[in-house]
Amino acid sequence: MSRTSPSTVAEATTTSAGPGAPGEVAPSGPAPRARRRTLTPGVRLALVSVVVVVASACFLLLFIRGGFEFVIERRATMLGAMVVAAFTQGVATVLFHTVTNNRILTPSIMGFDSLYTLMQTLMVVVFGGEVLARTEGLPKVIAQTLLMVAFATLLYRWLFSGRFGNLYVLLLVGVVFGMAFSSVSTFLQRLLSPTDYDLLSTRLFGRMSNVDADYLPFAAVVCVAVGVVVWRRRFRLDALTLGRDTATNLGIDHQRELTIMLMLVALLISMSTALVGPMTFFGFVVATLAYRVTGSHKHQFVLPMAFLLGLATLVVGQFVLQHVFYAAGLLTVIIEFVGGIVFLFLLLRKGAL
Amino acid sequence: MIEFADVTKDYLDQRVLGPVSGTIAEGGITSLVGPNGAGKSTLLTIMGRLLQPTSGDVSVAGLDVRSTRSDVLAKKLSILRQENHFTARLTVRDLVGFGRFPYSKGRLGPEDHVRIDEAIAFLNLEEFQGRFLDELSGGQKQRAYVAMVLAQDTDYVLLDEPLNNLDMKHSVLMMRQLRRAADELGKTIVLIIHDINFAAAYSDRIVALRDGRIAAAGTVEEIMQDDVLSTIFDTPCTVHHVGGHPTAVYHR
Fold this sequence. Notes:
The complex is a heterodimer. By secondary structure, chain A is mainly α. Helix content of chain A is about 75%, strand content about 0%. Chain B is an alpha/beta fold. In chain B, strands 6-7-8-3-9-10 form a six-stranded mixed beta sheet, sandwiched between helices. Chain B has a four-stranded antiparallel beta sheet with strand order 2-1-4-5, with helices on one face. The longest helix of chain B has 17 residues, at about 170-185. The model of chain B has no long low-confidence stretch (mean pLDDT about 90). Classes of the chains: A mainly alpha, B alpha/beta. The interface between A and B is large, with 37 and 45 residues. Chain A: It is found in: Cell membrane. Chain A: GO terms for molecular function: transmembrane transporter activity. Chain A: This is Iron chelate uptake ABC transporter family permease subunit.
């Protein structure tokens, strides 16, 4: 997946270290001294869009064996799941990075993936393995999403009541919660019968290839709604990048924006987790790439770029795995593997959060 | 005028500031001086609404800092803290442009670009405006931050140690530029400064803090006295007049 064309764009831009183009507002006055030619963020977005469209067309239409309609329908559902996963993970991670003012920690560190795992495990422990199969459905997804957002809201309310007033404490509590949830899950999983455990484990990795088409309209509506809210706040997000004090100085109600954004992140991540399973490092990889590829700090470019790069990664990765390696189910495993390595690499290189 | 009444700040049981009361007069430069841990930054950040006081009230130009909406206040008062590091890679012009956020809400218009150009010119940053902040020296960066605050075009400007990281030459330049901002643009500037002689040379008034209380406040001449300085800094100081300017000698 690291061979997708976006990542080659990334290398090209990082090595050229261009001025990143001053955005759509050309400076009046004397122009900054000439630099090596670079593409404007708009052009870069267009290029990545072309890659996404071509990749999606290939994914949908090439190598069809068997009934045309059946295959197209199945692949379209998968593509829909990828769109949702790329949007939720990409946007949520960028938002999270912006409001926490770091580019290393990911939303999953707040314990969402582990909460999902715990809920699934608890269901198997309490009701037995067959229940999982019988309770699939839209109400379950909505219930899970609401439960996770509620959990996040309670946690943030409590933490931001002024008791700590410190983001690092919040993050630390997130890590501890996550560890607690996964420890409990691991403990409970030991108590399961091998059959139940087998049923459970198929649910604990991303299920891009067997998403139910019935969920997708619900997911799409949520994505569009969140997208509208975020887009209207794109300039405020730019100012939030400067950190709490500078943003406050510029007239932003930081506490309010922070709460809103963390709620949106909670909504996106929980929906994504409930839909395609936990993905710890996918959002991180996509956001990290987006910062390098976009050539602008502006969220109006970074956010669409994160979404498009995520989609390109998923579609190209799935296509290659399906038709070259015949290992269609492994996509998320590979993304997590590569993503984890990139994460460790950047963490070690920066030496600090 | 900035007024603060009975302002205190506690961390758990530890009182770091106050109660302090006082006013900072309209116009000119007021310097906050004092030893480390005297509460200078705490007072400044409370005035700039970046920190909630444990008790007490602060008002800037008649607006209560706690209850006034942050975006209204942002057109009256700007504050620059000592430590500034941003996760995004910004050019000088991007950064200065953020100073227009209270007016433009992110969409820079022609008026905003005029103000940005002015602020950049005021701090002699024209040749650096297309450069990224991480390509600048400490002094250039410091000037870029101050340019952002000036682009915000507020009557009141609060600066926490603007001379931090600046060498002799750039310290003098920065103080001259701030003096010009006060004299030519009519701004009320409050700054924290460590070098008492810099404070004496460029300020109109000095407020001295010690152990979380205001130890002395007044004109430069009133503060630059042997006994006053020796008490504030807990170090024997003698004030000499060098070229007509009061200069404290405390190195031995």
